[in-house]
Amino acid sequence: MGVRRAAVERVEPAPEKAEEVGAGKEGREPACPWCGSPEAEKVSDYGPHLMVCQYICRGCNSPFEVIKR
Q: Residue 61 above 90 pLDDT?
């Protein structure tokens, strides 16, 4: 039992779009990943981890998290 062979393929990360680079910074709210609405409200500076901020969408009322940069 076990793995006899494994294939590893190197994948380069996709370049970020200019409008996504500033997401999550002060004065710039991210778009909702569920409905795409730009109407998002920051709920907390810290989520379950110190590296994320919590937001809630005003359009569909869905909570989501954004990784801090």
A: yes
